[in-house]
Amino acid sequence: MSDQGGLFARIDVAADPPRIEVPRLYNAALEFIDRNVVEGHGKQIALIDDDGCYTYRELCQRVNQAGHVLRAAGAGMEQRVLLCLDGGIDFASLFWGAIKIGAVPVPVNPLLTQDDYAGLINDSRPRVLVAHPEQISHFKSTLFQQPLPCRLLTVDTSRCGAGELARLMATAPVELKAAATTADDTAFWLYTSGSTGSPKAVVHLHRSLIQTAVLCGQNVLGIGPSDRVFSAAKMFFAYGLGNSMSFPFAVGATSIVSAHRPTAENVLAVIDEHRPTVFCGVPTLYHNLLNIVGVEEAELLATLRLYVSAGEPLPESIGQRWQALSGCEVIDGLGTTEMLQTFLSNRPGQVRYGTTGVVVPGYQIKVVNSMGTAVAPGEVGELMVAGPSAGAGYWNRRAQSIRTFVGPWTRTGDQYFVGSDHAYRYCGRSDDMLKVGGIWVSPYELESLLIRHPLVAECAVVGQPDAGGLIKPKAFVVLKDSALAGDGAVETLQCFAREHLAPYKYPRWVEFLDELPRTATGKVRRYRLREQLGL
Known about the structure:
It is a single chain. Strands 4-3-12-11-13-14-15-16-17 form a nine-stranded mixed β-sheet, with helices on both faces. Strands 18, 19, 21, 22 and 23 form a five-stranded antiparallel β-sheet that branches. Helix content is 31%, strand content 24%. The chain contains 16 helices and 28 strands. Helix 5 (136-144) links the parallel strand 7 and strand 8. Residues 1-5 have low confidence and may be disordered. The N and C termini lie far apart (56 Å). The protein folds into three domains: 24-32 and 52-206, Rossmann fold (3-Layer(aba) Sandwich), CATH 3.40.50.980; 228-427, 3-Layer(aba) Sandwich (Rossmann fold); 438-532, GMP Synthetase, Chain A, domain 3. By secondary structure, the chain is of the alpha/beta class. Helix 2 packs across helix 3, helix 2 packs across helix 6 and helix 7 (208-218) crosses helix 8 (238-249). The longest helix is centred in the N-terminal third of the chain and has 18 residues, at 56-73.
């Protein structure tokens, strides 16, 4: 049990589940940044990015300077600060600096379109926007139309040189008193990935980050002070935010981040240079790595102690191949932006590939039918979760908040069933399930089968009406060798599906694509595929 003057959470990791008592007056920046300095970890490396490494003391000073800069730029208590940045020291300093002064950081993807940013700016109404200099043209016209003034700050880039932020921080004080926030004040927003439509901002509280860091980061993944955590998922996503900041910073560990695109080649280069102990990726990236790794790279990958996967279900074949290659398990889990981090997960030493594992202690799970009634084990229904990291709702989306946040429970929109081994198995999104001949069909089941075929690199399944208007499965497939696309490949894949699945589940149509439409987190945009079919 630890307690520091009532400023920090009281944490008992020996309890089952771990007990976390967050004081009423509480600021998350003190918990994750200042606490490391107060407890003597100031010289420990907190963050390694493409430009250098920073101790916890240096990070704390930069956070304080960023807080002063944001306040002077017009960000006050509860006012939004839009961070259009890749992960790195600037992102970390601004995110925690905003939280420390009681403002609300809103991280967004720096690779969106001008129309995307217009929607986000109009929705969030920021008082400060921080971005790369080359992005200014994306924002200016929208900012001029805002009813409230918004200050635009730029950061350093290799192409454009020093930005305004560096100049302002250089003269800012290195000490900063935290705002008198409470545990239930808004700390930050995270936008959903938009895999099913326009993004929604989930409002998260000061008390939430420490819950995920202890319940999942420490109790499930075993992250400790000696770990070096490298996340391919960026900090502007819930998965990346936890992997890169709250998980390591909660225990004084080291975070490794890179602004480069998380291609298989770039990921291997970072692992080779910085030697992480824990890597967090998405299934698509593990699949891409498997396609390029040779003997030398396999030896490098065997030096890590733990691999983590989330963002989309990990196919059983990819998990098995990765463990055979690296000698390390891949810990697959499920989290949502609404719940901030993982609440359903496999455990080290207890991995069941093809499942999402068991409930993370501290959370509750139930599977319900369309009436909200719990179904029997083995029956498919919508997964609902209750736990201490749930968002307070969607910003300015009252009707959608009421549908998703139901008392203590949060609807995930994911279809699952729980087996006799208490492990949960994914069946697809609620709006992706297909009723074929009066029987529910999981697109994920067909996708998991097709990806095992040696011709297939990746695939996605949606429903398409046949000539009689009845829904049947259609597979969109990316081949490993596009030259093989044709009627022969279609017949081969259809026969493969018939051999391994019930007759009504095979794809009536197969269409070959160069790539699948994906969100920035790697999730397939199925609605784009349905749009191609005119649905």
